[in-house]
Amino acid sequence: MIAPMSIRLSPHILSLINWKDPLNDPLVRQFIPLASQIRPDHPRLRLDSLGEKTDSPVKGLVHRYPDKALFLGTVTDSPLASSVCPVYCRFCTRSYSVGVDTESVAKSRFLPIRKKWEPIFDYIEGTPNLHDIVISGGDSYNLSPEQLRYIGERLLGIPHIRRFRFASKGLAVCPIRILDRSDDWSDTLVDLSNKGRKIGKHVAVHTHFNHPNEITWVTAAAAQRLFEEGVVVRNQTVLLNGVNNNVKTMLQLIRALADMNVQPYYVYQGDMVQGTEDLRTPLRDILFLESNIRGTLAGFMTPSFVVDLPEGGGKRLAGSFESYDQKAGDEKNAE
């Protein structure tokens, strides 16, 4: 089995890997595939495992939930906000579109071109039941400050949009950019947050840390700048075998995030992604973690443990199943 993602790492992440013991390093497991670890894919695997194309009323937008939509591209020639990330995670849900072609996946390349975004904005403006937009891709960190401002101000100008968030792993993999005063990206983000607050609209960043080793003094300093500037930052963690699927590591990560004023928001069950079955965990792992973590932390520091159901089923609390056969791995969710 050939991995669907090419390898791309930031200098920050490279500097954090324990090169004296790379085979057991939690960062190596996330970003560098090893043939010796690859297992056969799940029999129900689909390249678009969450069925995002099915819920795409216009190219570049996924409208699955009644009042929320994803601003991204999921089909050929769609205007993805950004199909490039500062790093490429092995387990990327959108491995069918993010990054460059690999031997196993021919990617749909999307460029952040404003004129191709217009049908997306037309749909959002014409759908008054939409109140919440997630700008993803790709990674919002790879948008230019001008593109970031354009998207943000367009959304702020739509009366029925009450909140939106920029999805970015930037704080975790390249935090120095947030501290670089010569780079306008962070200033633009802060300005959008302030403009939103003045008109009663919520602008936030959703970032992505999976292991406490990803957090350094530079990370804390970057998070502090955003906190001082009033930018809300939430974290979404993916549960990964051999990385964070134990109580000690997960608690350490949650506390480290909270200490940086980054809200631990979600812990996701890993999606079915080609070439990453060695990273996926059984449902019992996420249930065990939640049962041992919930009640040991303040409620606002406790993330929701969720499963994003295949083929467009949407997010569900991991513990909301009606039945679960641990031996077969079969789960039936409550309606």
Summarize the biggest pleated sheet. 9 strands, mixed
Strand line-up across the major sheet: 1-2-3-4-5-6-7-8-9
**Number of strand elements:** 11
Globular, elongated, flat, extended or rod-shaped: what is the shape? globular
Whole-Å distance between the termini? 35 Å
The helix-and-strand class reads alpha/beta
Mean pLDDT: 84
**Radius of gyration, taken over Cα atoms and rounded to an integer in Å:** 19 Å
Query: Helix share of residues?
Result: 25-40%
Seen as an oligomer or otherwise, the chain set is single chain
SSE run: HHEEHEHEHHHEHEHEHEEEE
Strand content: 15-25%
Q: Please work out how many helical segments DSSP would assign.
A: 10
Low-confidence stretches: 73-82, 99-110
Q: What does this protein look like?
A:
The chain has helices spanning 11-16, 26-31, 114-125, 145-156, 170-173, 176-179, 184-198, 217-228, 247-259, 283-293, and strands spanning 61-65, 68-71, 132-135, 163-167, 202-207, 232-239, 263-269, 304-309, 314-317, 321-325, 330-333. With 335 residues, it is of the alpha/beta class. A 9-stranded mixed beta sheet has the order 1-2-3-4-5-6-7-8-9. Strand 5, helix 8 (217-228) and strand 6 (232-239) form a beta-alpha-beta unit. Residues 73-82 and 99-110 have low confidence and may be disordered.
